């Protein structure tokens, strides 16, 4: 009880700081329609959220985070510009018994502002100031640069879409890139399937397999078979282009040095040019807010294991203990506003802090 009271007090202190920075306090339902979250993240979200059923409302999920309901509420009629602050419990299933909480308080700050293109710097600097006494390790990245690099690859649209879909699954992404670049052999099961497809028409193979089981129609299966055949015929991603993408994936350096490196490869990978200049403008905005960007860590792959709505700047603040989750995290999610705004969109960036970890690091619990 004492620990919970200390965590609640820390959460209220952080929430008050966000309100003092200009945010409007908002609330969000604890039970959220599962359909929206499944549409956004696919079935993977089931492994991370608590799912239940309501006889009237259908399948529901205990709130896994605040960003989705806050964006929904804003796109349904929020002011423009707007800054929001929230405080409440979130619920996450844990695959491993590593002591991580399944229910914990989260405090957040979200910015929707067309006239503030460098709101990234506003949010990061605000968080850095609130957590300055904890000696946390900041880390930053930019999913937008990696997405731009993938979109600019000289390969089939189907392969580009597959890589984009798995950006937030680093192992799967790397396996696909290795295969598309010709650096990994085709899995035996896939090779065997392609041999069978080459031996006869998909329709004949479907007919020979017997009655259909499941939701896919014969037409769906045939279309998938044709897609597999087409992909197998596609040439490998050119070695120089693949090498640049591998280089980008492994880039870790202080931010100014990372910018110099990215500007060096941009002429060879021109699709990343605009995203790199956005990165440069962000560094200037961060420096203007007192952030030492000459030392600020940058990792091009940072943020690729979080929820899948970030599409630009990402950041975390982590404690020295690697077993602890990030004390704070956030980033830009412009595309999410378009998805939840039914075509309307607005630049958006925000972040969350775990008050339980802040209280622990301050010795309050």
TrEMBL record:
Keyword hit for Glycosyltransferase: yes
Residues the record lists as binding L-histidine: 65-67, 92, 106, 110, 304, 309-310
One GO MF term: histidine-tRNA ligase activity
Class II Histidinyl-tRNA synthetase (HisRS)-like catalytic core domain residues: 7-251
Gene3D superfamilies: Bira Bifunctional Protein, Domain 2 (3.30.930.10)
One GO BP: histidyl-tRNA aminoacylation
Keywords, comma-separated and alphabetical: Glycosyltransferase, Transferase
InterPro entries for the chain: aa-tRNA-synth_II/BPL/LPL, HisRS-like_core, HisRS/HisZ
Superkingdom assignment: Bacteria
One annotated Gene Ontology cellular component of this protein: cytoplasm
PANTHER family: HISTIDINE--TRNA LIGASE, MITOCHONDRIAL-RELATED, HISTIDYL-TRNA SYNTHETASE
Record's protein name: ATP phosphoribosyltransferase regulatory subunit
Higher taxonomy: Bacteria, Pseudomonadati, Pseudomonadota, Alphaproteobacteria, Rhodobacterales
């Amino acid at each position: 009880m004492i620990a919970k009271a200390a965590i609640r007090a820390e959460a209220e202190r952080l929430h008050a700081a966000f309100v003092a920075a200009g945010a409007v306090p908002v609330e969000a339902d604890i039970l959220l329609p599962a359909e929206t979250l499944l549409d956004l993240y696919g079935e993977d979200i089931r492994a991370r959220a608590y799912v239940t059923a309501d006889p009237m409302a259908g399948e529901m999920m205990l709130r896994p985070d605040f960003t989705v309901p806050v964006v929904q509420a804003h796109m349904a009629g929020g002011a423009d510009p707007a800054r929001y602050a929230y405080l409440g419990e979130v619920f996450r299933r844990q695959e491993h018994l590593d002591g991580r909480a399944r229910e914990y308080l989260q405090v957040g700050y979200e910015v929707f502002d067309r006239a503030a293109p460098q709101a990234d710097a506003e949010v990061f600097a605000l968080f850095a100031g609130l957590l300055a006494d904890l000696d946390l390790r900041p880390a930053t990245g930019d999913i937008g640069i990696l997405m731009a690099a993938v979109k600019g690859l000289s390969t089939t649209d189907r392969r580009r879409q597959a890589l984009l879909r798995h950006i937030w699954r680093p192992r799967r992404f790397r396996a696909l890139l290795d295969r598309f670049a010709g650096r990994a052999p085709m899995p035996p099961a896939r090779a065997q399937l392609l041999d069978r497809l080459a031996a006869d028409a998909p329709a004949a193979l479907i007919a020979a397999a017997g009655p259909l089981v499941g939701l896919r129609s014969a037409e769906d299966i045939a279309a998938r078979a044709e897609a597999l055949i087409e992909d197998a015929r596609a040439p490998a991603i050119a070695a120089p282009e693949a090498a640049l993408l591998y280089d980008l994936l492994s880039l870790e350096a202080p931010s100014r040095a990372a910018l110099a490196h990215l500007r060096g490869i941009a002429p060879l990978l021109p699709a990343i040019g605009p995203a790199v200049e956005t990165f440069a403008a962000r560094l200037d905005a961060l420096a203007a807010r007192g952030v030492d960007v000459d030392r600020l860590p940058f990792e091009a792959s940072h943020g690729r294991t979080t929820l899948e709505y970030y599409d630009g700047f990402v950041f975390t603040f982590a404690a020295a203990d690697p077993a602890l989750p990030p004390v704070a995290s956030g980033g830009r999610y412009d595309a999410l506003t378009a998805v939840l705004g039914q075509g309307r969109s607005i630049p958006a960036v925000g972040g969350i802090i775990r008050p339980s970890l802040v209280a622990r690091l301050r010795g309050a619990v």
